[in-house]
Amino acid sequence: METRSYAFAIAALDIINVVPTGIPWLSTITGVPMFLLAIQYFLGRPSPSLPGFIGRRGLSRRRLQDFLASARGRIERLESIVRPRHDWWVGGLPRRALLIAWFLLIILLALPVPFDNLIPALAILFFCLALLEGDGVMAMLGWFFTVVTVIWTIFLLTVGHMVIGQLLKAIF
User: pTM for the full model?
Assistant: First the structure.
């Protein structure tokens, strides 16, 4: 149960990063609380909590009910897709590896690396769904997006560095 509450809280913070908004620093703003929650999980806290100045911000009961009513169809569709299966991917050693990758992806998401938010956000979301429902298929999708994240980040850090250098040479 405790992993599920952390996975739900992190998924709730991560979901906005999956939508391409173009808002600068959004992944850092949501990534830092996700990082704090992940640290609490690894320290063995029984349930997630955020510092008061973050935790006090929330939705009114009416807005939450309105949101849940409007999202009901999508939630039901998600529940039909995400279900316990292929439990080998979410138990034992694979689960430990998943949790480590989940934590490293959260750190990467919190870093202000331009153009490197969507793919790790997807991997984090799929890992959260895997942990919530014990769904090995979601874990496999999380691992796929983790590999894509590693390749994309390396590409950005190498090619991005070269492009910025060329731009600076051209300008100056």
Answer: 0.83
